[in-house]
Amino acid sequence: MELIPDQKNSKLTAVLMLVVAVLLVYLVGFHWFFKRHIEYAEDLSALKEQLGRFEAVVAQRESLQQQLTAIRESSSDEELFLAQPDFNEAAAEMSERLGQMVTTLAADDCQIVSRQPVRPRVQERFQRVTVNVRMRCHGDDLLQILYRLETEVPMVIVEDLNVIRPRARRRSNNDAAQLQSLDVRFNMSGYLKS
Hints:
This protein is of the alpha+beta class.
């Protein structure tokens, strides 16, 4: 038995122990530091990319603001309000406008059954004028009338639209279904300036 170990094995053991010690010192003391810095670098690159997108949007600010100003100047809000000074005149004008549309856009069998002005129950910022309408009309004519009502100036809003299709009646001669008009009920509303 040898009391002194072999020098070749002791050098290798010392080198291995030094490597293990350095690895332990790195893992305990520095690994979290480097890992945290790598995460910070990834976050920083993501923030730089986001900053680039924000700067691109900011660069468009002046042109977008000019477009917004041009749009605001082109459409006058006052044109959207009803021109009449009080509720009754505005309701009469809306009813007359609907009557003219039915006359010009629809066939002869399209007719207005009733028009009744309805005063609002709730006070709003602008006074609302509502006319309750009941009509008998075919679908195509009805679509044209409603489209024109909502797209023309002054602004008229169609609400609470109820369309009822009557039952088909059969002719006694040839049992063919007779095409009938739809029963339509809706409210059309507009606003006064003051």
